């Protein structure tokens, strides 16, 4: 059974896209039954070129990344979500749609690397990619199949506290 994880950020152009790519990369490499998705409440319509650049340099597949609305995941036919993780503070404060399956919802806030000074922006994106990748590895280590919703939420919140 595949576990579907939705990662949210307002514009779905940087942090959430990085997290989607990193979780899918590590899940595939480690043979874990997880599928990441990302979306935004007000999608920009494009993935930030710096996000694509740092992912490609790290050997991460970016072919499926696109900026999309969270409405896609509340619509009929959407995958049943096991967890929804917000990675920006503004998305965490918004009223989310009703997700099918009542997924666990947690917040893992990260600063927006797009706000870094131009000469530091690429480095900010790389550091964000690494930080998100590390958390995605921690998520994959959670014994998902043996935990109920409260246990999954506690495990995801523990990862956020590290």
From TrEMBL:
The keyword Transcription regulation does not apply. Keywords: Arsenical resistance. InterPro entries: Ptyr_pPase, Ptyr_pPase_sf. GO terms for biological process: response to arsenic-containing substance. Residues 3-142 form the Phosphotyrosine protein phosphatase I domain. This is Arsenate reductase ArsC. It comes from Inhella proteolytica.
């Amino acid at each position: 059974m595949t576990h579907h994880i939705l990662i949210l950020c307002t514009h779905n152009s940087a942090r959430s896209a990085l997290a989607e790519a990193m979780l899918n990369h590590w899940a595939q490499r480690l043979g874990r039954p997880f599928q990441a998705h990302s979306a935004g409440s007000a999608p920009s319509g494009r993935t930030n070129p710096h996000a694509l650049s740092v992912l490609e340099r790290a050997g991460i597949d970016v072919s499926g990344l696109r900026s999309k609305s969270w409405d896609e995941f509340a619509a009929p036919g959407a995958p049943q979500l096991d967890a929804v993780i917000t990675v920006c503070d503004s998305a965490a404060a918004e009223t989310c749609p009703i997700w099918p399956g009542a997924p666990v919802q947690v917040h893992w806030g990260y600063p927006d690397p797009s706000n870094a000074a131009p000469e530091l922006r690429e480095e900010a994106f790389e550091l964000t990619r690494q930080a998100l990748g590390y958390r995605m590895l921690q998520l994959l280590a959670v014994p998902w199949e043996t935990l109920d919703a409260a246990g999954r939420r506690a495990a995801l919140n523990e990862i956020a506290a590290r």
